[in-house]
Batch of 2 targets.
Target 1
Amino acid sequence: MAPLTSVPFDVAPFRFSGTVYGTLLNHRDALDALGASIHEAPYKAPPKSVVLYLKPRNTLAGPGDVVAVPSDAPELELGPSLGLVIGRTTCRVSEAQALDHVAGCVIVADIGVPHASFYRPQVRFKARDGFCPIGPRVVGLADLGDLGQLGIRVHVDGQLVHESSTAGWIRSPARLLAEVTDFMTLAPGDVLMTGVPHGAPRVRAGQRSVVEIKGLGRLENRFVAMAEAEP
Amino acid sequence: MKRARVAYAGAVHEATPHHDAGGARLRLADGRIVAEDAVVWLPPFEVGTVVALGLNYADHAKELAFNAQQEPLVFLKGPGALIGHRGQTRRPADATFMHYECELAVVIGRTARQVSRADAMDHVAGYTVANDYAIRDYLENWYRPNLRVKNRDTGTVLGPWLVDAGDIDAPPALDLRTLVNGVVTQRGNTRDLVFDIPFLIEYLSGFMTLAPGDVILTGTPEGVVDVRPGDEVVCEIDGIGRLVNTIVDDAVFGRA
């Protein structure tokens, strides 16, 4: 499993490590959508620290790859996220210096089996093979401008089904890196997703998705029923 | 056969146990015989995805007031948390309850995709000991257990040895224990796993392809206690190894 060799990039570290972390509920609209429930059981309180999850190496996929829809899930959710590609070892960075450690950004499609609870979702909702397409390319920070002002669009079978932007983050990329790397060192080639906006669109077997983030290109994938995806 | 990965004299080596009149030492693959404390012990194999089980011993689940489950509680860990035998694990100054978890770690040796229970053990390369620390102060009710509790730098200790699967009767029924400063604080036996190793491989490989180097930390029994800077924590599993770790404070890591 050579992760993402089809997504080369020309800024250091020039390749992905294969480690990809997601950030939960980092868009204000996604947290707001939970309403008062964030104070109720099982959560009892809104998240205080940054909440992360892992997309393991079996989930990694590239542009154009086919994603298998499991037979027990009629639909999948496709969460578009801006991914920060770590350029050099990042440990206990200050917010002011955090972005100096980022090589660039890339589109990540965070795919999951829809689930209502954020308490202790089963790993099988998020960690199936192919559930983390990344691409089509890594763009250096110098070419991107303000990371907090990038438009995000998702098309399914040519129809625009979701439109949002990176505005409205609870934690900016710099803030995220400062908090995360206080307890967890990120290595060159690691990817940290900055979060998925509210209302991730749904996709079914037989459909094609395109995730666009301004300046980062288009990440296209195709969804097929599990039986068709069998080797 | 059991093997370690160690750094010595400018390179990383595979090492095997060596016993002679000089006591227990290590034999590097190139023939050098060295003392166990002359090397830096690394996790004993190239670690891929780390899959961990919560509450997989009935007694520990009871200890933490959980009811029996229908499905394993699985979480994932990143590579940055890993350290080897004789390493140091940081306890942050603001923590009030940081505990070890002695666990049998099952290392995958052959790609496993939709493997049946009957065939599961064919995909196991071997075993090692894991000590998977948690800091309960940081537990929040979002994507439990959140990574700040369970995926901290230096928080997951693996080693000393990778023991070949063929050397251990399957499924393993091995006594395990943890000693803090020489006093036994945790005891269990791997036969008491709620979800046993063949089940876990069948379950996990049903939705995610397991690759060589992936490792399943099978959970810990009851008997977790708070550990403090200066404590020596030893996790032992009979036939697999004796994994030593020391708790250190923030100052060691240059934090005020």
Target 2
Amino acid sequence: MGELAFFDANCQVGLYNFRVEGGPYSLQELVADTRKHDISQRLVYSAMAKEHSPALGNERLMQEIAGREELEPCWACSTWVTGEMPEPQQFVQALQQAKVKAVRFFRHFYHVPMSEWSLGPLWRELERYRIPLFLDLGERWATMDEIDADEVYELCHAHPGLPVILTKHRIRFNRQVYALLEACPNLHLELSGYWHYRAVEDICRRFGSERLLFGTNWPFMDSAFAIAAVTYAEVSRGAKEAVAGRNLRSLLEAVPW
Amino acid sequence: MVRSGLASCIYRGAALQGELVIDAHTHLGVFKDYFIPKADAQDLVAYMDRFGISKACTFAFAGVNSDFRYGNDLVAQACRDYPSRFIGYVTLNANYPEELVEELERGERLGLQGIKLITAYQGHPEETERFYPVYEWANARRKIILSHQWGRPEYLSELARRYPQVSFHIGHLNFAYAPVVRRHDNVFTTTTFVPWPGAIERAVREFGAEKILFGSDFPDLDASLNLGPLLTAEISDEAKRLILGRNMERILKEHAGGNVR
């Protein structure tokens, strides 16, 4: 039986703050890591889009990964009311023109409330085209338990057609995550923040393998963790294939461009 | 892609066959902060088999911040049920100073072989003087003591000098301790941590492969969190074998009555 085709839902490229000593960050290092672990594809966002400016970071990302077919862009989204970002319809048009099929929202970096009164029109546009939304809710790379479960629940229920993916957390308090998965059928988990014992098999058994997406959180974490979490999980080969890459591919293929 | 050596297991999800793998940092039972499925000894052994983990040094969550006697009894029962798979540690609570040595004696009668300290979860600093009787007791019996952390590196260095018969284990990888680990023959670090790219390679450079012990922290964490990065690290398979089990095998021979297989 061959190795799994991994599609990484969560990796970052570019210079970033709070770099671990000697830690990687560059496109060349990302490509080397991709080859080392034979990862088929990676959904990449820009460190600058997270830490400095979504608009500048998104532009930088497209320049940086141009020509690299194994790297899919993931843009950052934010509020338009300041004029820093296009209004929701224009933002989605820009996504379409650039063939970008996923977006990421950095809840704490830009201090933007994610409630309906703040970002409802943006969520509606993303839902209209079923553009996967990665919720990056922490302030640090592995912030523990900063999830506001009510916020996530309200977003998922206000926009049941919007695929929402919780990402980049050390989701330590898993009882609230189980409750969210139970209550929100459109909610998914990206794996790199979910370090719990037997996590993959327990979530697959309770909620279905379609709820988990393989992700490495490179360059903050060693990619081998998430790979091993999938390969060693006590689930069927089909479930492993789904988590490793099929689920993310399906979400991206549902976007109409 | 064709892969060889120990790393190939990770990509196939294959157990490490024919290798000695001793996990120096594991837990037993359930925990208050989060849900742990299948946390009893039987399920843990099945889980160890999945990865090829031969033996686990284990201590109970209950001892961390609840009823330490219940927790130590749980560990003792697991060791009785699976004597070739678990090496039991007594967990102590700094809030019961009058019972520390008593619990060590009780643990020894139960067959527990090492000591686990985790004062940060009990409202005390690592450098608490309350544990000096514990170190004296352990020194007289050549025990292993694993602590979550050890306070300032110079404090650990002083303990290692003052209690040379104790094997001091650092519960979570912390590069600040590297000079102490290199300086003292009786100080070791576990790998237990959140691995970033290149961290294992750096650990081998700074601590030396012969001073590092594989620790996964299961079922607090999934064993893949530490096993994946270790097995795919850019270090020799010989260095990996030292870390996976050979170093701990030597320590157990000297400090736990040879409880190896």
